[in-house]
Amino acid sequence: MKKVLALVLCVAMLACFAIPAMAEGVTLNGGEYTAKAGDAIEVIVSADGSLSAGNLIFKYDTAVLKFEKMKKVGMSSDADSAIANEADAGEILFAFASSAPLDAGELVQLNFTVNADAADGDTEVTIEIDNLSVADAQGETTDLKETTTLNAAKITIGEEAPVESPVESPVESPVESPVESPVESPVESPADTSTDAPAGSTAAPASTASTTNPKTGDAGVAAFAAIIAAAAAAAFVAGKKKA
Questions:
Q1: Has residue 51 got a pLDDT over 70?
Q2: Alpha helices by DSSP H, 2-146
């Protein structure tokens, strides 16, 4: 009985190792974009966890987008092989494989052109998984198909709304208060300290001193002397006639 129980336990342990481990889920994200009719657009799909191999299917609306090519970036450029092909209109098959786990990052770039007659609105590039896995250093493979989260690429088609310039409020000039002129006090004349003359007396007029030129003064004296002399002479003549 003990041998049978031991054998059952061994088989159970082997079965556990034979079943691929279920790792935590990985998220594949297509991003968000804005474009106008006629624009070229680059859709980059990224993974937030390690991958080793996978077959993915990208689907898009051919009335809005035209697939141009696949470009290797990040994980797909580090992989041993990575190819893409548009098997049917609106459906892109992408496959990659690597002998070593690829670090999380950009997985693949899909180049599209927005059709010239594309209507404004939203469209998507969806992601589907055929198979997706990661292998560890010992070569053990973990299936990620059932645990992976898929976020489609979202594209908005249409003219961008014009950016409105901020309205500047008018700058108010400060109101200046009127400057008051200083009030000048009347200048009072100094009080006359002179003593008033008694009533009835007449004040003598102030004599004005004149500056006499010495030469002019001599000429006046000479003229006065001549007049006196002439008067004397006339008196003398008159006296002589009476005599």
A1: yes
A2: 2-18, 75-78
